Amino acid sequence: MKRILLLIIIFLTGFNSFSQPITVSTTTYTVPQLVQDVLFAPTTGSASCVGTISNITWSTGNTGTNGSYNGIGYFTNSNPAFPLSSGVILTTGDVTGTPGPNDYELGDAADVQWPGDQDLFDYMDGLGIDPNLLDYNDATILEFDFTPLTTTMSFDFLFASEEYGVYQCDYSDAFAFFLTNLTAGTPTTNLALIPTTTVPISVVTIRDGAYYSGGGVNCGSSHAGYFGNFNGGAAAPGSATNFNGETVLMTASSNVIPNNVYHIKLVIADRNDNQFDSAVFLGGGSFDIGTPNIAGTGSEFGGFTDFTGLNSVCSSASLVVEAGSAPITGATYAWTLDGNPVGTNSFTYTITQAGVYGVTITYPGGCQQTDSMTVQYRPSLALGTPNDLTQCSAPFNLMQNTPVIQNGVSNPVTYHHTLANAQQQFGAIGNAGNYNGTDGEIIYASVENFATGCIETTQFTLHIDLSLCIVPPIPGTPPDMVQYETTPNSGVSIFNFTPQTAFVYGSNPVSDFTVTYYPTLADANAGTNPITNITAFQNTISPQRIYAVLSDNAHPTNFTVTSFQLIIVALPNVSISGPVAVCSGDSATITFTGTPNATANYTFNGNPAQIPLGPSGTNTFISPPLLLQATFNLVSVTITTAAGTTTQSESGSVVVNITYPPSINTPTDYVVCDDSLDNDALNCNFDLTTKITEITSDPTVQVDFFETATSGSPIPNPSSYCNIVSGNQEIFVRVYDPTTPACYSNT
Q1: Please, what is the average pLDDT of the chain?
Q2: pLDDT of residue 672
Q3: Of the candidates 47, 216, 239, which has an alpha carbon nearest to the alpha carbon of residue 160?
Q4: What is the pLDDT of residue 63?
Q5: Are 89 and 95 in contact (CB under 8 A)?
Q6: Interatomic CA distance for residues 469 and 584, integer angstroms
Q7: How many angstroms separate the CA atoms of 213 and 377, rounded?
Q8: Which of 437, 482, 435 is nearest to 463 (CA)?
Q9: Residue 17 has pLDDT above 80, yes or no
Q10: pTM, two decimal places
Q11: Are the beta carbons of 443 and 437 closer than 8 angstroms?
């Protein structure tokens, strides 16, 4: 018997080691510390960065014949069946009675009953869901003011009660989390609701009918998915708390307005009596009123917190970020770029370069919060720097700067009155080539980067200089210069601009003006990098535009730019091809391939001839029947283009040899005796190959047999030919050299 008792004791000892109850203290923290250092702090004892917490008040307990009762306390837990590790308890009884196991009823004697709460009564009574409600007793209340930093607030909690089991079909003790926006003065709301409903949480609204142990009819379950543990019966010894049951861990939350002052009242009370206590367990460190995050502002970046990858910033964009949704009164802001201090004590910061940006917010109480974000910029086009346009008077040709701005790309350029319009490519100046601008006016140029989708901008200024009011010279229009390349396939030609000069002068006196040539429009307008070797300008680009400046000798800044193109035409070429040999008496097909529309010059057995190549660049010559060897030699190729007529020597030849058909003899008839009674019977006694020695004595030739003179294919088995023709069958013979099958003899 003692041995059995010992095993039971050992078992219970081992069971309890894995089912520890919670521990409760009313002295570890004062009530204000429970708010500031337990509900708000992420770890025990750390300072909380929560803006302003004020007006912390509380109410609980009474002193009777059985001593003082305190319904507010701090708890810690290591029992894995209970989902909170630490936090604050609000109970309708003495908080020291809440630790498990669940081995006695939690309820206070009548002499220690303390008042209820009128707000809670008015709220519950106004819902009309408890017709038997008379009053509330033993109310424990914790309330305070706080200022949220972001747009939401939340905290974790669970509800536990002695009324689970026997009394879970009657309306139970009540609790509420009353939230009020003091700044806005909006109506108070209750956060202690079953998720996605407007139903207050209680024993009767969250219950599992499987644990009903009262008398009468079982009222069944209600929102059973939110019921957590029933701690009665066999579960009682291992219960973390001394309550019969509890809900799952839930979260109370609400949308809030940053920097508004809110008041929250956490209250729980006994219904109609002071028996069968209930409690709310609040998760330590779960009271979340937000952390300011760096985010973009404005219509383009408002609320964005990521500026990397696909969200990277265009180089022309103006990126202003802010540390949270609104400035915090009394806080200071310290900004950094790649870890180095930048900026001043400002709630916003204007970003102008890529990097890692951080901000440290120091609150009036001394605690700090930090946040950071990485900003990347998209690669920009290498736009050229436009020139300020200076003229005697308007109008201005803004498009003079287009090639300068494009700097080698073809992306269109638009011109605008304001930077904002340029950044949006909105309201472009329509008459950019003849714009009636004013002195000192800034013109904003806009170019879209098709690779990144960014719009990039630059700017230049218009100037009106009355000293320039001289009639600009009117140059003539020089023609384009078209020349052949110097050597075949070189792509190079040497140009002499001297003939162009007369065209540029036009009707202007040569003594009063000077003509200068430039490789780019920018150089022409700036008067830099003139072309000095105008008589032997080596060009490799076709077409290449050359800019000619006609300037007034008396007023060098009074000039006009015109232009022409250098066009290089490839020299013509031709090649010849044809057969090595033809049969005596046949024609040879000679193919000429080369530059389209050129003419090939050649000789045929020493006689000169020509053949046009046509648009395709190919043509063929079919010779007369050849009995002797023929020779075709290329001489040259001639073409006429815009560059003139040119003839280029060519080499290449085709020698056509003559082959002759082999000699052939007519063989004697092949006669066999057909002794069949049916004259039409198949006779396969013919071995045509026996006639080969009669046909030819040359063992190198090929002999084929055909049934008709026009047969396309020879008889496949001449050694066992089957004759199905009644009477005589004529066989046709072809003899040819296998190397030249087209040259053959027939019999």
Answers
A1: 86
A2: 67
A3: 239
A4: 58
A5: yes
A6: 87
A7: 68
A8: 437
A9: no
A10: 0.50
A11: yes
Can you tell me which residue has the tokens 């009313």?
26
Q: Is 707 exposed, middle or buried (0-12, 13-18, 19+ CB in 10 A)?
A: middle
Give CA–CA dist 661/674, Å, rounded: 37
Pairing of strands 227-230, 245-247: antiparallel
How large is the C-alpha radius of gyration of the chain?
53
101 upstream amide cis, omega within 30 of 0: yes
Mean pLDDT computed over 411-415: 96
Handedness of CA 590, 594, 596, 601 (dihedral sign): negative
Helix (H) or strand (E) holding 171: none
At residue 7, φ and ψ (nearest 5 deg) are -65, -40
Cβ(278)–Cβ(270) below 8 Å:
yes
| CA separation for the pair 417, 439 (Å, rounded) | 14
Q: Indicate the Cα dihedral angle 526, 528, 533, 535, nearest 10°.
A: 10
Asked if residue 259 lies in contact with residue 118, where contact means CB atoms within 8 angstroms, the answer is no
- Is the model's pLDDT at 680 over the cut of 60? no
d(CA 670, CA 685): 10
Q: Where are the beta strands (DSSP E) in 402-480?
A: 413-416, 442-449, 454-464
Tokens read off for 234: 């066999």
* Alpha-carbon separation of residue 743 from 537, 661, 701 (angstroms): 60, 5, 11
Token pair in block for residue 1: 């018997």
Helix, strand or coil for residue 525? helix
Here the tokens at position 163 are 């009324």
Residue type, 597: N
Residue 686: band (very low, low, confident or very high) from pLDDT cuts 50, 70, 90: confident
The position carrying tokens 């206070």 is 108
CA separation for the pair 495, 595 (Å, rounded): 23
Q: Which residues contact 313 (CB under 8 A, 6 or more apart)?
A: 301, 307, 319, 351, 375, 376, 377, 378
Number of C-beta neighbours around residue 143 at 10 A = 18
Q: State residue 32 phi and psi, 5-degree precision.
A: -60, -35
